[in-house]
Amino acid sequence: MNSNNEHKEGVDQRISMVTGDPKRAIRVLSVPMIISMLLIMAYNLADSIWVAGLGPDALAALGFTAPIFMIVVGLGNGLGAGATSLIARCIGAVNKKKADNAAMHSVILSLAVSAIFTLLILVFLSNILLAMGAGSTVDLAVEYGQVLFGGLVLMIFSSVASGILRAEGDVKRPMYAMAATAILNIILDPVFIYTFGWGIAGAAWATLLSASISCALMIYWMLMKGDTYVTFSRSDFKPDWGVARDILMVGLPASAESFVMSFLGMILNLILVVTGGAAAVAVYTAGWRVVMMVMILPIGIGTAAITVAGAAFGARKYDNLKTALTYAAKLGFITTTVVGLLLSIFSGVVASIFTYSPETAYLTPEIATFLQLMFLFYMPVPLGITASSIFQGMGKGITSLILTILRELAFIAVFAYLFAFIFGLGSQGVWWGLVVGSGIGCTLAYIWANIYVNRLKRYFIGESGVENV
Q1: What is the pLDDT of residue 101?
Q2: Angle, vertex CA 157, rays to CA 155 and CA 160, nearest 5
Q3: Which of 227, 246, 356, 418 shows its CA 20 to 30 Å from the CA of 57?
Q4: In 10 A of CB 337, how many CB atoms?
Q5: Among 312, 284, 327, CA closest to 420
Q6: Average pLDDT over the chain, rounded to whole?
């Protein structure tokens, strides 16, 4: 009895936090999210560091598979965002029955999507890599990709399960699962790559085995322990296209955003192959891993904002929605700028992590230059990420997708081409394209989100005749 009371009290506290002060909720939710994402990036970074010892071709091969991996991660994160958004809106509207059904639909959708994309990627992997310009590194890229993408279901299910827990304010347990995954992956990487002599495929096997730990923990917490707000049973599940559509209306556009970013990665890789060859791709691969570590800060804060925005939107508390938008952007800007400045100052030291072998030592100055320039890239990014997160929380996935397409393709890709070829800056032009294009796109996205939320507030006040509280 005491155990049941403790479980209920814990659930009630999480729900009260999600539906209460937006600033506090974003702070509480974002810290475990940031730690979880840092752990994810830590073992991805470990892959790069250990694979770098195999030579620049192996590191470049990892770079060519990275855009595809982003699609896989995006599928999981997208469906997870869809689950978070709908369940949080149900919590805000005090509709537990629909929240339970949404959770069940999310799990089923994750399994179906995993099966479809595993088949598609494995069948066309070699052709995709060649189209991306993998060239002489294609065999290494296929060797790595066949193993990694064969276990796609582990990554997607884990992301969706984390999204379900995040919706009810439970972000600590996904963090614990990710900690176990990251630690195991970092330990297994050198063993599989060098001790067992599996080479680049060993890095993929280490990732899959580690990911299975996260899935096992999620299944235990959600389906066996039974101390979550949402419940999972046959009686909870009522097939409903409306519920599935609500999840997919956020999940598919969010996943498509990752595809757009992956497509941008392919474009940039092609430009780099033409302007600098495999060495330029290797510089971008190593440097971008560091950039993504910094991006975890605004992404984690933005992910927390999805839950808060969803609950506020479901409860029609548009003041809370406005607060979530401005506070998440401000918090993201401050933290990202500080960390980005430190990385710029110590860029040479950071670059040397990827160039410890004689084969890659000559890349150190170029990676350091890339990291220094990326300081300008970091500052406006939280504005764009926060805007997209708020729209996802409200269930406006298409709007978020439009903002991403504008930023990634209409601005970054175009400016990268202009600087690299028209202005003759070569590989350096790609770095400047990232800075200028992202700055314009993220600023416009934040302006758009502010206009939308302000209109919601005015409409609600005009409709009800009173200020919402």
Answers
A1: 92
A2: 110
A3: 418
A4: 17
A5: 284
A6: 87
Angstrom CA distances, 454 to 314, 429, 462, stand at 17, 38, 12
CB-based burial of residue 197 (10 Å sphere; 0-12 exposed, 13-18 middle, 19+ buried)?
exposed
pLDDT band, very low/low/confident/very high, at 6 (cuts 50, 70, 90): low
**pLDDT number for residue 465:** 46
Other CB atoms within 10 Å distance of the CB of residue 339: 16
Whole-angstrom distance, CA of residue 237 vs CA of residue 100: 8
**Cβ–Cβ < 8 Å for 422, 432:** no
Residue 468 — pLDDT band, cuts 50, 70, 90? Answer: very low
Burial (CB < 10 A; 0-12, 13-18, 19+), residue 70, is: buried
Of 1-15, 224-238, 363-377, where does the model show the most confidence? 363-377
Helices marked H in 136-240 — which ranges?
138-150, 152-167, 172-190, 200-219
How long is the chain? 469
The label of the residue with tokens 């969803």 reads 310
Cα–Cα distance, 273 to 284 (Å, whole number): 11
Tokens of 228: 């979550």
Tokens of 407: 């930023």
The answer to whether residues 113 and 192 touch, using CB atoms and an 8 Å cutoff, is no
**Residue 411 DSSP SS3:** helix
* 71, 259 Cβ separation under 8 angstroms: yes
Q: Give how far Cα 257 sits from Cα of 120, 194, 254, Å.
A: 19, 36, 5
Asked whether the predicted pLDDT for residue 7 surpasses 70, the reply is: no
DSSP 333-371: HHHHHHHHHHHHHTHHHHHHHT--STTTGGGHHHHHHHH
Nearest to 314 by CA among 411, 395, 415, 403: 395
Cα 175 from Cα 358, distance rounded (Å): 37
CB-neighbour burial class of residue 20 (10 A; exposed 0-12, middle 13-18, buried 19+): middle
- b/e string for 105-123 if b means 16 or more Cβ within 10 A? bbbebbeebbeebbeebee
